[in-house]
Model the fold of this input.
Amino acid sequence: MYPGLFRPIILRNARYNQHLTTATSIIEVGATGNTMEQCLNSMKYLATVLNEAMK
Done:
């Protein structure tokens, strides 16, 4: 939906508390090179993607 907005998904053999319940995920927003404004602006696009994926 938004090419280039998100980085590739990295799958690791780690749990990060995801084992405590079913259907969990971790979404990291931004990095040291991003401003808070950039992170917040990207959330409207992430929300649209998640909404479409969960239909």
